[in-house]
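Tutorial, part two.
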Amino acid sequence: MDTESQLGAAAGGSLLLCAALLAAGCALGLRLGRGRGAVDSGVLSWLCYDALVHFALEGPYVYLSLIGNIAEADGLIASLWKEYGKADARWLNFDPTIVSLEILTVVLNGSLALILIYAIVKEKYYRDKVTWGK
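Running the prediction step on this input gives:
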């Protein structure tokens, strides 16, 4: 195989993984939003997708970066980040700024998405306060 088809396969695998996460997030959100309005179902779908991205894509990036570097890692998640690293090499090797921001993103944004999903599903009084800060 030539280099171009290999690059295309890696990019295609990354795109396929993201599409699978989107489908899973939408399916889960619609299931959790059953019996609720269209807005709540849509928000739940987005939040489920958001949580999946933070925990299934960004979480493994943090892990792989902390135990080594992405450039030497194998696997589907590593290939996704290698593809991303073609545009910015800081994503391939341990960069303290990138990794620390990703840790914050995974922990804070991923957790906030789960809290909001819980608040919407259980109809908690704080759901609008967490979402809009009012």
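DSSP finds five helices and no strands in the chain. In part three we will examine how such features are distributed along the chain.
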